[in-house]
Amino acid sequence: MRHRLTASTLLLALPALARAADAPVPAASAAGSLLQVFVGLVAVLLLIAATAWVAKRFGVMHGGASGLLQVVASASVGTRERVVVVEVGESWLVVGVAPGSVSALATLPRGEAPPAAMPALNTAFAARLQKLIDKPPFGDKHREK
To answer: Hey, where are the domains in the chain?
Structure first.
């Protein structure tokens, strides 16, 4: 009974809705439209940033990585070739990776990963930079007397 009442009320309201649709719509100001677009853009950008934060926070970025397989180290040996050490269970696999192919090179017992080495500073560059900093801008000729 309730559905019949709702349906009949909607049917009776149709002529009033049709008259409302024919009414002239006031012109929107350009500033209001621009503000609405700007607020929408900011909302979308905030939504993207929040989604990225949540994904990073809860580890969604790792993709298909699992506890069984883990990359221990890798080194580039060419423009598109790499040697990768992968830990699988209690052993390490040394794998050569090239475009279109992956080749097992060796199997090693599980070891400890060496700590990341700090790159050596180029002292020659540092000395030349300090020399340039200490040098007067235009040499001795243009010094004020």
So the answer is: 68-109
